[in-house]
Amino acid sequence: MSNVKVLPLLEPDVVACCPPLNERPMSADEAEAAAKMFKALGDPVRLRLFSAVASHEGGEACVCDISDVGVSQPTVSHHLKKLKAAGLLSSERRGTWVYYRVQPAVLAAMSALLAGTAKEAV
């Protein structure tokens, strides 16, 4: 039994932030949007938290399930706040716990941005 989940690369109503890197030079606005996304993921703890949410069963994760990343709980909260501010995660409070979900367009935008480059590397 495999735990591999196939995620759709593009949803019908999703518009990527930027063209693939090898399609044409980015505009200033496109570069700003991409840099914001990559800057938020540039920290190893934030990348681990983002990965934990994205790969969690059901597509969302309670903060209680993803806080074991080697830093204190206040630091986890700080990093989750940064990911939300960058538009990568959304959250919902349920009772005493907060549940996080990857914004639907994020994985599609990252995939579209890097798709052309990945094809050439093969």
UniProtKB/TrEMBL annotation:
Keywords assigned by UniProt? DNA-binding, Transcription, Transcription regulation
Q: One Pfam family of this protein, by short name?
A: HTH_5
For whether the record's keyword set contains Transcription, the answer is yes
- Reading the lineage from the top rank, the first entry is Bacteria
Give the matching SMART domains.
Answer: HTH_ARSR
Start and end of every HTH arsR-type domain?
26-122
Mind telling me which SUPFAM superfamilies this protein's record contains? Winged helix' DNA-binding domain
Q: Which Gene3D superfamilies match?
A: Winged helix-like DNA-binding domain superfamily/Winged helix DNA-binding domain (1.10.10.10)
* CDD domains, per database record: HTH_ARSR
Q: Which residues cross the membrane?
A: none
Q: Do you know which NCBIfam families this protein is assigned to?
A: HTH_metalloreg
Kindly give the PANTHER family that the UniProt entry links to this protein. Answer: ARSENICAL RESISTANCE OPERON REPRESSOR, TRANSCRIPTIONAL REGULATOR, ARSR FAMILY
Q: What is this protein called?
A: ArsR/SmtB family transcription factor
Q: Native species of this protein?
A: Streptomyces toxytricini (Actinomyces toxytricini)
